[in-house]
């Protein structure tokens, strides 16, 4: 009962932090509270929100994937190469791109599950290899030439108002909530992160379950990558650099435990919204990217420490 109340308190605190940030930035700059800026924030966080849903699956299952940013980069380069250099139908190229990131996610999950390599090491190696491959294929230069009609996916608005990337994010959020809360697959994800051995003894294939979390993350990373490609209008080898840290910060800030077995899609998306509001608000205030990185790093460290003490039941040491 005590844990349930504590979890609920954390959720309320996360939401209150989100509201407080909106109020503070609105007071500092009236332009922040404008409808146009709100739509801009939704467009900005859509890609992070989509990947955060998949990242939540992996974290709840007790895993970690630091290669999602590099997956987006190599996928964008491959799609542009297929369209521009090989003349492949753009829609088919997008499908191939999603299939590619899904395959990478599946491979990550398979290697981690079957070899026992720590997820941090395995996915960090994949991150480095994929980023290097993106630069090799593109020779280090952006690739231009995707059709204008594809750019609607990343730049268009529904009825001239609501960003299409936001609609895609909402659809992914609904998918994630249903999967985690209404299916046995979601229950298996939670059990995998809480007690993998107990799940195995019930007859569930824990190897398949773990691989599935990474495959779903790869699939959703592909969707986010398409939105990013269609928003920028070009394939860039250095795109989504450090993107995985934003996603990790959003998920953990939203209450998803780095130790696995705990978290929700709703909380993770609020965490993504907080990161988006921070980025947007600090940009309006004139803060450069370096200060934004410092603040996000501090936020990530704080929430991980808080989660660790909460999971172990220990209290933070008092200052001398």
Automatic annotation (TrEMBL):
Stretches of the chain forming a coiled coil according to its record: none
Keywords: Cell membrane, Membrane, Transmembrane, Transmembrane helix
Compartment(s) of residence: Cell membrane
Classification via InterPro entries: ABC_transp_permease (IPR001851)
Membrane topology label: Multi-pass membrane protein
Record keyword Cell cycle present: no
Membrane-spanning parts: 12-33, 45-62, 117-137, 158-180, 211-230, 251-278, 290-309
Keyword Cell membrane tagged: yes
Protein name, UniProt field: ABC transporter permease
């Amino acid at each position: 009962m005590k844990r349930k109340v504590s979890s609920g308190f954390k959720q309320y605190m996360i939401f209150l932090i989100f509201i407080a940030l909106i109020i503070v930035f609105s007071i500092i700059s009236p332009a922040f509270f404008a409808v146009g800026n709100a739509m801009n924030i939704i467009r900005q966080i859509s890609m992070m929100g989509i990947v955060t849903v998949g990242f939540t699956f992996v974290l709840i299952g007790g895993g970690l994937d630091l290669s999602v940013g590099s997956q987006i980069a190599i996928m964008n380069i491959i799609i542009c190469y297929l369209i521009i250099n090989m003349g492949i139908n753009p829609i088919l190229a997008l499908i191939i791109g999603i299939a590619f990131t899904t395959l990478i996610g599946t491979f990550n999950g398979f290697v981690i599950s079957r070899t026992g390599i720590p997820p941090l090491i395995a996915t960090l190696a994949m991150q480095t290899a994929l980023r290097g491959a993106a630069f090799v294929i593109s020779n280090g230069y952006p690739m231009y030439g995707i059709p204008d009609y594809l750019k609607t996916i990343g730049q268009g608005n529904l009825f001239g108002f609501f960003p299409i990337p936001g609609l895609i994010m909402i659809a992914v959020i609904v998918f994630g909530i249903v999967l985690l809360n209404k299916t046995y697959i979601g229950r298996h994800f939670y059990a995998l992160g809480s007690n993998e051995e107990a799940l195995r003894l019930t007859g569930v294939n824990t190897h398949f379950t773990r691989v599935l979390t990474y495959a779903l993350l790869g699939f959703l990373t592909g969707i986010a990558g398409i939105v990013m490609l269609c928003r920028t209008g070009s394939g860039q080898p250095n795109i989504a650099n450090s993107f995985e840290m934003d996603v990790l910060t959003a998920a953990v800030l939203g209450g998803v435990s780095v130790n696995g077995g705990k978290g929700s899609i709703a909380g993770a998306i609020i965490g993504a919204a907080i990161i988006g509001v921070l980025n947007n608000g600090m940009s309006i205030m004139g803060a450069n990217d370096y200060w934004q990185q410092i603040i996000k790093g501090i936020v990530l460290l704080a929430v991980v420490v808080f989660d660790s003490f909460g999971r172990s039941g220990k209290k933070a040491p008092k200052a001398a």
